[in-house]
Design a protein that fits this description.
11 helices, globular, 4-stranded antiparallel sheet, NADH Oxidase, single chain
């Protein structure tokens, strides 16, 4: 798919073909997409553990469900438990020098190994590492960027996915998660049992209420011509609910033996 169509087709899929496994090569594509995501000081904050649902101990599985996510976790054949590594910044001195050597950070902008050693590490990175609130914020933002790329890659591979919360302590113990990893989300992955439209593109606030020009309160004006172009490129799609969505949900409920 073209990039804009991938953006347009992304939905939080909640009905999966529970019986159909996800091919390992597609899992790798998802992880590779996360790996190459933008990250501050090239420190690679995101960590993930891939788990096949059917290999989870039944008692453990019950303990990590939430009232919101339990049913979706049961349907999705693949779980990716995402964490942010709070210690990743410690390699920032080395990773920045790697960027200098790679030609990504250049002398034209003041970068050198000496600049990293004398200024960036002692004045910026080391203090952030000692300020837990700022560190958590930085790790969460960069982890979210990488998770977003993983999510889009899943849809580009013809899969469905849903990000949701999970109960961390039992899964942390079972999967031997390091203490310095901060829980983010579990990405539930599989082939959709519902149509790819999943009832239509979800409602969102108007552009002018979210983004501003020059100053707060001056909403960024939406150009109708751009809207039409994005519809043609399938980034903007028919909004939910599509007229047949309730019938689809009833059919899915009957198929899975769920309440209608």
């Amino acid at each position: 798919m073209e990039f804009k169509e991938v953006l347009g087709r992304r939905r939080s899929i909640r009905y999966f073909q529970a019986w159909r496994p996800v091919e390992r090569e597609k899992v790798q594509v998802i992880l590779e997409a996360a790996r190459i995501a933008s990250c501050a000081v090239n420190a690679s904050y995101l960590r993930g553990i891939v788990v096949e649902r059917d290999k989870l101990d039944p008692a453990l599985f019950e303990s990590i469900k939430t009232p919101v996510s339990g049913l979706v976790m049961e349907m999705a054949p693949l779980h990716i438990y995402f964490y942010g590594d709070l210690d990743a910044y410690k390699r920032g001195r080395t990773s920045l020098k790697e960027l200098v050597d790679a030609g990504a950070l250049n002398a034209s902008h003041g970068w050198s190994h000496k600049f990293v050693d004398d200024f960036v590490w002692p004045m910026i990175l080391e203090p952030i590492g000692k300020d837990r609130e700022n560190l958590i914020r930085a790790v969460s933002v960069d982890s979210g960027t990488a998770i977003c790329q993983a999510l889009l890659a899943a849809f580009d591979e013809g899969l469905g996915a849903c990000l949701t919360a999970f109960v961390d302590p039992p899964i942390r113990q079972a999967l031997k998660v390091p203490d310095h990893w901060l829980p983010m989300w579990v990405m539930l992955v599989g082939y959709p049992a519902e149509s790819w439209e999943a009832g239509g593109q979800r409602p969102r606030l108007p552009l002018e209420q979210l983004f501003f020009e020059s100053q707060y309160g001056n909403g960024f004006k939406r150009d109708p011509k751009v809207v039409e172009r994005l519809k043609a490129e399938k980034m903007l799609q028919d909004p939910a609910p599509l007229p047949w969505r309730k019938d689809e949900v009833r059919a899915l409920a009957r198929m899975f033996g769920l309440p209608e």
